[in-house]
Input
Amino acid sequence: MGLKTFKGGVHPKDEKFRTNKVSVTPHIAAEEVIIPLRQHIGAPCKPIVKEGDTVLMGQKIGEQTSFISAPVHASVSGTVVAIRPYPHPGGGEEMSVFIQNDGLDTLSKDINAWNLEMVPSKVKAYIQALQPKEIVEKVKEAGITGMGGAAFPTHVKLTPPPETPIDTVLINGAECEPYLTSDHRQMLENTQKVIVGALMIAKAVSANKIIIAIENNKPDAVAAMQQICQDYEMTEVAVLKTKYPQGSEKQLIQATTKRQVPSGGLPAAVGVIVNNIDTCIAVANAVVRNMPLIERVVTISGDAVKKPANMSVRIGVKFSELFEAAGGFIEEPKKIVMGGPMMGIAQTNIDVPVIKGTSGILAFKQPPTYGKEEGSCIKCSKCVQVCPMRLMPNYLSVFSQKKNIDKLKEYHIMDCMECGCCSFICPQRRFMVQHIKAGKALVKQKG
Output
Protein backbone atom coordinates (compact mmCIF):
# COMPACT_ATOMS: atom_id res chain seq x y z
CA MET A 1 0.00 0.00 0.00
CA GLY A 2 1.44 3.40 -1.03
CA LEU A 3 2.26 6.16 1.41
CA LYS A 4 -0.42 8.79 1.87
CA THR A 5 0.34 12.32 0.70
CA PHE A 6 -0.94 15.39 -1.18
CA LYS A 7 -0.02 17.33 -4.30
CA GLY A 8 2.70 19.95 -4.03
CA GLY A 9 5.05 20.54 -1.13
CA VAL A 10 8.82 20.52 -0.79
CA HIS A 11 11.56 18.37 0.73
CA PRO A 12 13.83 20.41 3.00
CA LYS A 13 16.57 18.55 4.90
CA ASP A 14 14.79 17.41 8.03
CA GLU A 15 17.82 17.65 10.38
CA LYS A 16 15.95 15.54 12.93
CA PHE A 17 19.00 13.35 13.57
CA ARG A 18 20.15 15.98 16.06
CA THR A 19 17.42 15.12 18.59
CA ASN A 20 15.20 12.26 17.39
CA LYS A 21 17.12 9.75 19.53
CA VAL A 22 17.38 12.09 22.52
CA SER A 23 14.93 11.25 25.31
CA VAL A 24 12.92 14.01 26.96
CA THR A 25 14.61 15.42 30.05
CA PRO A 26 12.96 17.63 32.68
CA HIS A 27 14.05 21.26 32.81
CA ILE A 28 14.04 22.78 36.29
CA ALA A 29 12.44 26.22 36.27
CA ALA A 30 14.68 29.04 37.48
CA GLU A 31 13.98 31.77 40.02
CA GLU A 32 11.28 33.51 37.97
CA VAL A 33 8.74 32.58 35.31
CA ILE A 34 6.95 35.06 33.05
CA ILE A 35 3.49 33.97 31.95
CA PRO A 36 1.83 35.96 29.15
CA LEU A 37 -1.93 36.43 29.42
CA ARG A 38 -2.27 35.79 25.69
CA GLN A 39 -0.94 32.41 24.56
CA HIS A 40 -3.71 31.54 22.14
CA ILE A 41 -5.74 32.71 19.19
CA GLY A 42 -8.51 34.95 20.49
CA ALA A 43 -9.00 37.45 23.27
CA PRO A 44 -6.28 37.82 25.95
CA CYS A 45 -7.04 36.78 29.51
CA LYS A 46 -7.61 39.18 32.37
CA PRO A 47 -5.43 38.66 35.47
CA ILE A 48 -7.22 37.33 38.56
CA VAL A 49 -4.19 37.68 40.82
CA LYS A 50 -2.35 40.78 41.99
CA GLU A 51 1.15 41.70 42.95
CA GLY A 52 2.10 40.12 46.29
CA ASP A 53 -0.29 37.15 45.98
CA THR A 54 0.98 33.67 46.77
CA VAL A 55 0.07 31.18 44.05
CA LEU A 56 0.20 27.40 43.76
CA MET A 57 1.42 25.35 40.83
CA GLY A 58 -1.55 24.85 38.50
CA GLN A 59 -3.59 27.69 40.00
CA LYS A 60 -5.53 29.80 37.51
CA ILE A 61 -4.01 33.29 37.24
CA GLY A 62 -5.70 34.55 34.06
CA GLU A 63 -9.40 34.18 33.23
CA GLN A 64 -10.70 33.97 29.67
CA THR A 65 -12.76 36.92 28.51
CA SER A 66 -14.52 35.34 25.52
CA PHE A 67 -15.45 31.93 24.11
CA ILE A 68 -12.41 31.94 21.81
CA SER A 69 -9.84 32.26 24.55
CA ALA A 70 -8.14 30.01 27.11
CA PRO A 71 -7.22 30.61 30.76
CA VAL A 72 -3.61 30.57 31.92
CA HIS A 73 -2.19 29.04 35.08
CA ALA A 74 0.85 29.31 37.30
CA SER A 75 3.54 26.85 36.22
CA VAL A 76 5.33 27.05 39.59
CA SER A 77 4.35 27.89 43.14
CA GLY A 78 5.56 31.17 44.53
CA THR A 79 4.77 34.88 44.71
CA VAL A 80 3.40 37.23 42.05
CA VAL A 81 6.00 40.00 41.87
CA ALA A 82 4.65 41.99 38.91
CA ILE A 83 1.93 42.18 36.27
CA ARG A 84 3.08 44.27 33.34
CA PRO A 85 3.69 44.23 29.59
CA TYR A 86 6.66 42.12 28.48
CA PRO A 87 8.11 41.06 25.09
CA HIS A 88 6.23 38.12 23.61
CA PRO A 89 7.74 35.46 21.29
CA GLY A 90 4.86 36.04 18.89
CA GLY A 91 5.93 39.68 18.51
CA GLY A 92 5.27 42.90 20.38
CA GLU A 93 4.46 42.95 24.07
CA GLU A 94 1.70 41.28 26.06
CA MET A 95 0.52 41.76 29.64
CA SER A 96 2.33 39.09 31.66
CA VAL A 97 2.36 37.71 35.19
CA PHE A 98 5.79 37.46 36.84
CA ILE A 99 6.05 34.74 39.50
CA GLN A 100 8.98 34.38 41.88
CA ASN A 101 9.52 30.62 42.09
CA ASP A 102 9.72 29.22 45.64
CA GLY A 103 11.18 25.97 44.30
CA LEU A 104 8.59 23.84 46.13
CA ASP A 105 6.18 23.08 43.24
CA THR A 106 3.25 22.99 45.68
CA LEU A 107 0.29 21.79 43.64
CA SER A 108 -3.12 23.42 43.62
CA LYS A 109 -5.53 21.38 45.75
CA ASP A 110 -7.72 20.58 42.71
CA ILE A 111 -4.98 18.56 40.98
CA ASN A 112 -5.07 14.79 41.53
CA ALA A 113 -2.61 11.97 41.06
CA TRP A 114 -2.90 9.89 37.88
CA ASN A 115 -5.35 7.18 39.00
CA LEU A 116 -6.27 5.55 35.68
CA GLU A 117 -4.83 2.06 35.30
CA MET A 118 -3.42 1.87 31.78
CA VAL A 119 -5.02 -1.42 30.84
CA PRO A 120 -7.21 -1.34 27.69
CA SER A 121 -10.33 -2.68 29.44
CA LYS A 122 -9.95 -0.14 32.27
CA VAL A 123 -9.29 2.71 29.84
CA LYS A 124 -12.36 1.82 27.73
CA ALA A 125 -14.58 1.65 30.81
CA TYR A 126 -13.26 5.00 32.05
CA ILE A 127 -13.90 6.70 28.68
CA GLN A 128 -17.34 5.11 28.44
CA ALA A 129 -18.32 6.62 31.80
CA LEU A 130 -17.29 10.14 30.79
CA GLN A 131 -19.84 12.65 29.54
CA PRO A 132 -18.86 14.75 26.47
CA LYS A 133 -19.69 18.01 28.25
CA GLU A 134 -17.52 16.97 31.18
CA ILE A 135 -14.53 16.46 28.87
CA VAL A 136 -15.05 19.81 27.13
CA GLU A 137 -15.39 21.68 30.42
CA LYS A 138 -12.21 20.15 31.85
CA VAL A 139 -10.30 20.95 28.66
CA LYS A 140 -11.58 24.51 28.81
CA GLU A 141 -10.65 24.97 32.47
CA ALA A 142 -7.20 23.50 31.82
CA GLY A 143 -6.49 26.20 29.23
CA ILE A 144 -5.54 23.69 26.55
CA THR A 145 -4.73 25.04 23.11
CA GLY A 146 -3.37 23.42 19.98
CA MET A 147 0.28 22.71 20.78
CA GLY A 148 1.59 22.37 17.25
CA GLY A 149 2.01 26.13 17.02
CA ALA A 150 -1.38 27.56 16.02
CA ALA A 151 -2.61 27.67 19.65
CA PHE A 152 -6.31 27.54 18.81
CA PRO A 153 -8.34 26.91 22.01
CA THR A 154 -9.09 23.18 22.08
CA HIS A 155 -12.47 23.46 23.80
CA VAL A 156 -13.71 25.44 20.79
CA LYS A 157 -12.68 22.60 18.47
CA LEU A 158 -14.53 20.19 20.73
CA THR A 159 -17.80 22.11 20.37
CA PRO A 160 -18.49 22.07 16.61
CA PRO A 161 -21.84 23.43 15.43
CA PRO A 162 -24.70 20.87 15.19
CA GLU A 163 -24.83 21.22 11.41
CA THR A 164 -21.28 19.83 11.09
CA PRO A 165 -21.22 16.48 12.94
CA ILE A 166 -17.75 14.98 13.42
CA ASP A 167 -17.08 11.35 12.51
CA THR A 168 -13.27 11.34 12.43
CA VAL A 169 -10.62 12.58 14.85
CA LEU A 170 -7.28 13.06 13.14
CA ILE A 171 -4.23 13.08 15.42
CA ASN A 172 -1.36 14.97 13.82
CA GLY A 173 1.91 13.14 14.41
CA ALA A 174 3.42 14.22 11.09
CA GLU A 175 5.78 16.79 12.64
CA CYS A 176 6.89 17.80 9.16
CA GLU A 177 8.92 20.88 10.15
CA PRO A 178 12.68 20.26 10.06
CA TYR A 179 14.55 19.92 13.38
CA LEU A 180 11.45 19.44 15.57
CA THR A 181 11.17 16.08 17.38
CA SER A 182 9.02 16.78 20.45
CA ASP A 183 5.97 14.95 19.06
CA HIS A 184 8.18 12.08 17.92
CA ARG A 185 9.56 11.59 21.41
CA GLN A 186 6.10 11.88 22.98
CA MET A 187 4.79 9.10 20.74
CA LEU A 188 7.60 6.88 21.99
CA GLU A 189 7.67 7.88 25.64
CA ASN A 190 4.00 8.67 26.33
CA THR A 191 2.30 6.33 23.85
CA GLN A 192 -0.55 5.36 26.17
CA LYS A 193 -1.43 8.92 27.14
CA VAL A 194 -1.60 9.86 23.45
CA ILE A 195 -4.25 7.17 22.93
CA VAL A 196 -6.16 8.06 26.11
CA GLY A 197 -6.32 11.73 25.08
CA ALA A 198 -7.37 10.82 21.54
CA LEU A 199 -10.18 8.61 22.87
CA MET A 200 -11.39 11.45 25.11
CA ILE A 201 -11.41 13.87 22.17
CA ALA A 202 -13.40 11.36 20.11
CA LYS A 203 -15.88 10.90 22.97
CA ALA A 204 -16.29 14.69 23.30
CA VAL A 205 -17.33 15.08 19.64
CA SER A 206 -19.07 11.67 19.23
CA ALA A 207 -16.61 10.54 16.55
CA ASN A 208 -16.36 6.85 15.70
CA LYS A 209 -12.90 6.82 14.15
CA ILE A 210 -9.42 7.98 15.18
CA ILE A 211 -6.58 8.24 12.66
CA ILE A 212 -3.05 8.85 13.93
CA ALA A 213 -1.04 10.28 11.04
CA ILE A 214 2.75 9.88 11.15
CA GLU A 215 5.40 10.53 8.49
CA ASN A 216 7.51 7.56 7.43
CA ASN A 217 10.73 9.14 8.70
CA LYS A 218 9.62 8.06 12.20
CA PRO A 219 9.41 4.24 11.84
CA ASP A 220 9.82 3.66 15.59
CA ALA A 221 6.88 5.97 16.36
CA VAL A 222 4.80 4.27 13.65
CA ALA A 223 5.54 0.88 15.21
CA ALA A 224 4.78 2.08 18.75
CA MET A 225 1.43 3.58 17.79
CA GLN A 226 0.44 0.63 15.59
CA GLN A 227 1.13 -1.71 18.51
CA ILE A 228 -1.13 0.14 20.93
CA CYS A 229 -3.85 0.72 18.33
CA GLN A 230 -4.38 -3.05 18.20
CA ASP A 231 -6.08 -2.74 21.60
CA TYR A 232 -8.54 -0.03 20.50
CA GLU A 233 -10.85 -0.92 17.62
CA MET A 234 -11.66 2.64 16.51
CA THR A 235 -8.01 3.66 16.09
CA GLU A 236 -5.63 3.25 13.18
CA VAL A 237 -2.27 4.61 12.02
CA ALA A 238 -1.88 6.31 8.64
CA VAL A 239 1.71 6.33 7.38
CA LEU A 240 2.49 9.46 5.40
CA LYS A 241 5.14 10.28 2.85
CA THR A 242 7.78 12.55 4.37
CA LYS A 243 7.13 15.91 2.80
CA TYR A 244 6.56 19.46 3.96
CA PRO A 245 3.86 20.69 4.85
CA GLN A 246 2.37 17.23 5.39
CA GLY A 247 1.23 18.24 8.89
CA SER A 248 -0.94 21.13 7.74
CA GLU A 249 -4.59 20.44 8.59
CA LYS A 250 -6.05 20.61 5.10
CA GLN A 251 -3.24 18.57 3.54
CA LEU A 252 -3.41 16.02 6.34
CA ILE A 253 -7.16 15.60 5.89
CA GLN A 254 -6.80 15.22 2.15
CA ALA A 255 -3.99 12.68 2.48
CA THR A 256 -5.72 10.50 5.07
CA THR A 257 -9.43 10.77 4.25
CA LYS A 258 -9.52 12.05 0.63
CA ARG A 259 -11.86 14.81 1.84
CA GLN A 260 -11.22 18.38 0.74
CA VAL A 261 -11.89 21.26 3.11
CA PRO A 262 -13.68 24.01 1.15
CA SER A 263 -12.09 27.40 0.57
CA GLY A 264 -12.45 29.45 3.74
CA GLY A 265 -13.83 26.43 5.62
CA LEU A 266 -12.69 24.56 8.71
CA PRO A 267 -12.00 20.80 9.02
CA ALA A 268 -15.35 20.38 10.79
CA ALA A 269 -17.01 21.20 7.46
CA VAL A 270 -15.94 17.74 6.24
CA GLY A 271 -16.60 15.92 9.51
CA VAL A 272 -13.04 16.00 10.86
CA ILE A 273 -11.20 17.68 13.70
CA VAL A 274 -7.41 17.69 13.94
CA ASN A 275 -5.39 17.66 17.15
CA ASN A 276 -1.69 17.56 17.90
CA ILE A 277 0.09 14.71 19.74
CA ASP A 278 1.05 16.90 22.70
CA THR A 279 -2.50 18.26 22.83
CA CYS A 280 -3.81 14.69 23.32
CA ILE A 281 -1.50 14.22 26.30
CA ALA A 282 -2.63 17.55 27.76
CA VAL A 283 -6.28 16.47 27.38
CA ALA A 284 -5.59 13.18 29.17
CA ASN A 285 -3.90 15.02 32.04
CA ALA A 286 -6.74 17.54 32.26
CA VAL A 287 -9.51 14.95 32.42
CA VAL A 288 -7.81 12.40 34.69
CA ARG A 289 -5.82 14.74 36.94
CA ASN A 290 -7.43 18.18 36.54
CA MET A 291 -3.92 19.24 35.55
CA PRO A 292 -3.91 22.44 33.48
CA LEU A 293 -1.51 23.07 30.63
CA ILE A 294 1.54 24.42 32.46
CA GLU A 295 4.31 22.34 30.88
CA ARG A 296 5.21 21.07 27.44
CA VAL A 297 8.00 19.33 25.52
CA VAL A 298 10.27 21.69 23.58
CA THR A 299 12.98 20.78 21.07
CA ILE A 300 16.12 22.92 21.47
CA SER A 301 18.18 22.50 18.31
CA GLY A 302 19.95 24.10 15.38
CA ASP A 303 23.57 24.05 14.22
CA ALA A 304 24.55 26.76 16.72
CA VAL A 305 23.44 24.73 19.77
CA LYS A 306 26.10 22.68 21.57
CA LYS A 307 23.88 19.89 22.91
CA PRO A 308 20.52 19.75 21.09
CA ALA A 309 17.82 18.31 23.33
CA ASN A 310 14.15 17.63 23.98
CA MET A 311 13.09 19.07 27.31
CA SER A 312 9.93 19.09 29.38
CA VAL A 313 9.62 22.80 30.11
CA ARG A 314 7.37 24.92 32.33
CA ILE A 315 5.38 27.63 30.60
CA GLY A 316 7.05 30.98 31.31
CA VAL A 317 10.68 29.83 31.30
CA LYS A 318 12.94 32.10 29.22
CA PHE A 319 14.43 30.86 25.95
CA SER A 320 17.87 31.90 27.24
CA GLU A 321 17.58 29.41 30.12
CA LEU A 322 16.84 26.57 27.70
CA PHE A 323 19.79 27.40 25.47
CA GLU A 324 21.96 27.48 28.60
CA ALA A 325 20.60 24.06 29.65
CA ALA A 326 21.49 22.79 26.16
CA GLY A 327 25.13 23.74 26.66
CA GLY A 328 24.95 27.21 25.18
CA PHE A 329 26.03 28.18 21.67
CA ILE A 330 28.89 26.83 19.57
CA GLU A 331 29.13 30.34 18.17
CA GLU A 332 26.92 33.41 18.29
CA PRO A 333 23.82 32.55 16.22
CA LYS A 334 22.78 34.73 13.31
CA LYS A 335 19.13 33.71 13.64
CA ILE A 336 16.89 32.29 16.37
CA VAL A 337 13.44 30.91 15.61
CA MET A 338 10.50 29.75 17.73
CA GLY A 339 8.93 26.75 16.01
CA GLY A 340 10.31 25.21 12.83
CA PRO A 341 12.49 26.95 10.24
CA MET A 342 9.70 27.01 7.63
CA MET A 343 6.84 28.63 9.56
CA GLY A 344 8.51 29.60 12.81
CA ILE A 345 8.79 33.13 14.16
CA ALA A 346 12.21 34.80 14.16
CA GLN A 347 13.27 36.17 17.54
CA THR A 348 15.25 39.28 18.37
CA ASN A 349 15.26 38.61 22.12
CA ILE A 350 16.10 35.28 23.80
CA ASP A 351 14.69 36.40 27.14
CA VAL A 352 11.12 35.88 25.91
CA PRO A 353 9.13 33.12 27.66
CA VAL A 354 8.05 29.68 26.48
CA ILE A 355 4.32 29.69 25.70
CA LYS A 356 1.84 26.88 25.04
CA GLY A 357 2.59 26.90 21.31
CA THR A 358 6.39 26.69 21.65
CA SER A 359 7.20 23.34 20.05
CA GLY A 360 10.85 24.24 19.51
CA ILE A 361 13.48 26.95 19.66
CA LEU A 362 16.22 26.83 17.06
CA ALA A 363 19.52 28.70 16.77
CA PHE A 364 21.41 28.89 13.48
CA LYS A 365 25.00 29.89 12.76
CA GLN A 366 24.06 31.27 9.37
CA PRO A 367 20.78 30.41 7.59
CA PRO A 368 21.07 29.72 3.82
CA THR A 369 19.43 33.02 2.88
CA TYR A 370 21.18 35.17 5.50
CA GLY A 371 22.28 38.49 4.01
CA LYS A 372 21.06 37.69 0.48
CA GLU A 373 19.13 40.28 -1.47
CA GLU A 374 15.72 39.61 -2.98
CA GLY A 375 15.77 39.00 -6.72
CA SER A 376 13.21 39.62 -9.45
CA CYS A 377 10.70 36.99 -10.54
CA ILE A 378 11.98 34.99 -13.56
CA LYS A 379 8.59 33.35 -14.17
CA CYS A 380 9.92 29.81 -13.60
CA SER A 381 6.59 28.75 -11.98
CA LYS A 382 8.33 26.58 -9.35
CA CYS A 383 6.32 28.28 -6.60
CA VAL A 384 3.08 27.35 -8.38
CA GLN A 385 4.17 23.73 -8.70
CA VAL A 386 4.91 23.31 -4.99
CA CYS A 387 2.05 25.34 -3.49
CA PRO A 388 -0.02 22.85 -1.43
CA MET A 389 -3.08 25.11 -1.70
CA ARG A 390 -2.84 25.21 -5.53
CA LEU A 391 -2.48 29.00 -5.55
CA MET A 392 -0.23 31.24 -7.64
CA PRO A 393 2.23 32.75 -5.15
CA ASN A 394 4.12 34.57 -7.91
CA TYR A 395 1.05 36.65 -8.78
CA LEU A 396 -0.02 37.09 -5.16
CA SER A 397 3.42 38.45 -4.35
CA VAL A 398 3.30 40.99 -7.16
CA PHE A 399 -0.30 42.02 -6.48
CA SER A 400 0.61 42.57 -2.85
CA GLN A 401 3.55 44.80 -3.74
CA LYS A 402 1.25 46.79 -6.05
CA LYS A 403 -1.48 46.88 -3.35
CA ASN A 404 -4.03 45.53 -5.86
CA ILE A 405 -6.74 44.39 -3.44
CA ASP A 406 -9.21 43.27 -6.13
CA LYS A 407 -6.64 40.94 -7.68
CA LEU A 408 -5.53 39.63 -4.29
CA LYS A 409 -9.13 38.61 -3.61
CA GLU A 410 -9.60 37.18 -7.09
CA TYR A 411 -6.52 34.98 -6.63
CA HIS A 412 -7.73 33.78 -3.20
CA ILE A 413 -4.94 35.23 -1.06
CA MET A 414 -6.82 34.38 2.15
CA ASP A 415 -6.47 30.67 1.35
CA CYS A 416 -2.69 30.94 1.68
CA MET A 417 -1.50 29.27 4.89
CA GLU A 418 1.94 30.94 4.77
CA CYS A 419 3.76 27.59 4.76
CA GLY A 420 6.82 29.04 3.02
CA CYS A 421 7.12 26.47 0.23
CA CYS A 422 7.17 29.25 -2.37
CA SER A 423 9.98 31.19 -0.69
CA PHE A 424 11.92 27.95 -0.10
CA ILE A 425 11.83 26.85 -3.75
CA CYS A 426 12.33 30.28 -5.37
CA PRO A 427 15.73 30.48 -7.13
CA GLN A 428 15.62 34.28 -6.82
CA ARG A 429 14.99 34.15 -3.06
CA ARG A 430 11.93 36.33 -3.36
CA PHE A 431 10.30 37.12 -0.03
CA MET A 432 6.96 35.80 -1.17
CA VAL A 433 5.59 34.84 2.24
CA GLN A 434 6.33 38.32 3.58
CA HIS A 435 4.64 39.90 0.56
CA ILE A 436 1.61 37.63 0.95
CA LYS A 437 1.33 38.37 4.68
CA ALA A 438 1.33 42.07 3.88
CA GLY A 439 -1.30 41.48 1.18
CA LYS A 440 -3.55 39.57 3.57
CA ALA A 441 -3.27 42.37 6.11
CA LEU A 442 -4.21 44.85 3.39
CA VAL A 443 -7.27 42.81 2.38
CA LYS A 444 -8.39 42.60 6.03
CA GLN A 445 -7.83 46.31 6.53
CA LYS A 446 -9.82 47.29 3.45
CA GLY A 447 -12.53 44.68 4.01
